[in-house]
Write a structure and sequence with these properties.
Elements (H helix, E strand, L loop, with lengths): L3 H9 L9 E5 L4 H13 L4 E8 L6 H15 L5 E4 L8 H20 L3 E3 L4 H14 L3 H4 L5 E2 L2 E2 L7 H11 L15 H17 L3 H34 E3 L5 E7 H5 L3 H15 L8 H12 L7 E3 L3 E6 L2 E6 L2
Parallel strand pairs: 1-2, 1-4, 2-3, 4-6
Antiparallel strand pairs: 5-6, 7-8, 8-11, 9-10, 10-11
Helix pairs in contact: 1-2, 1-7, 2-7, 5-8, 5-9, 9-11, 11-12
């Protein structure tokens, strides 16, 4: 066998070496996830591989699209398929809210099946788009490092393959993907980057733009992982000194010694501050670079400024030689 489908099969094969395991994968019905479905079905003969189709309810015909996807999966050969309706509460943008609801469902199925892995069909085109989105947000190395191939039980085996590869694989297998109208809606920043920014870069810089952006993400991930490791090590070594608890054992505040943290490289110190703020109760992913800069100023630009308020009712202040994090009343 030759062609793009064979390349996709080669990409998923190393993750299926343990027989008699249960594996899940997310399937939207688009070219990427259907190509993944075809490859997993071909390579996962010694295990139980189950697709998970999520109806996000964001379009009038979403239920019909879900049913169409399930029927396509059955034609591929899947006898057991799972589906679920997402409960999306839009709090921080449509895409982010839908993603949060989707992963909640994925995690529920992982727990239900005690699955070894859940596969996702992101390609290097998605990775390149993430790098540009990270640049636009100005949110630092971790954001620019894109998506990891493995994040716990979530596996992205197609990150070294392109969207053109998955589309060609579907043609090769005689499968017709669903065309999501959201992928044409330029109200979404990702779609605008996909349809305008990257084609413009390719036209003016060269065909290797997507490869270069994806490779940059991989290199930045190495740097981000190293800095995170240093921050986590510092945090764990000093954990008992940071936490202040009440008589019931409940976390009351986190107190950071200014002189101790000033010994750290600023990149590591910023990560320690993030750890502390999230530990104090800020919602995951809620901190921006500007928020961290404001807290960092307690170290580098101390002029007796007042309290800094952060998401999750976390407040930060400097009291002499100590940075104190606590919850607002």
């Amino acid at each position: 066998m030759s062609g793009q489908l064979w390349q996709i099969r080669k990409a998923v094969r190393p993750w299926l070496i343990e027989s008699n395991q249960t594996y899940l994968f997310g399937c939207s019905g688009g070219a990427d996830s259907l190509a993944l479905a075809i490859a997993l079905f071909a390579e996962g003969k010694n295990s139980k591989v189950i697709p998970v189709v999520i109806d996000h309810g964001l379009q009038i015909n979403s239920a019909e699209v879900t049913e169409q996807t399930l029927q396509t999966l059955k034609k591929i050969g899947y006898q057991k398929c799972e589906s679920a309706k997402a409960n999306i509460e839009i709090t921080d943008g449509l895409e982010a809210s839908a993603r949060r609801a989707r992963y909640q469902i994925f995690n529920e199925f992982i727990d239900s099946y005690n699955a070894k892995y859940l596969f996702l069909a992101h390609t290097k085109n998605d990775q390149a788009e993430n790098v540009i989105l990270g640049l636009l947000r100005g949110s630092g190395t971790r954001s620019l490092s894109g998506m990891p191939e493995q994040n716990g039980k979530f596996i992205r085996p197609l990150l070294n393959l392109s969207r053109a590869d998955t589309e060609a694989a579907c043609v090769e297998a005689g499968v017709t993907p669903w065309q999501d109208p959201h992928n044409e809606d330029e109200r979404f920043a990702r779609v605008k980057i996909r349809k305008r920014v990257i084609p413009n870069l390719i036209e003016n810089v060269g065909e290797r733009v997507v490869d270069s952006l994806a490779r940059s993400a991989a290199l930045m991930r190495l740097d981000a992982d190293a800095l995170d490791e240093q921050a986590n090590q510092f945090w764990n070594e000093n954990l008992k000194d940071f936490h202040k608890v009440d008589k019931s054992g409940k976390l009351e505040s986190i107190e950071l010694n200014v002189d101790l943290l000033l010994k750290l490289h600023r990149a590591v110190r910023a990560r320690v501050l993030r750890l502390a703020i999230y530990k104090m109760g800020a919602p995951s992913g809620s901190l921006t670079a500007d928020m961290i800069f404001a807290v960092e100023a307690f170290f580098t630009d101390w002029h007796r400024q007042g309290v800094t308020s952060l998401p999750g009712n976390v407040k930060v202040l400097r009291n002499s030689g100590t940075i104190v994090l606590s919850k607002s009343d």
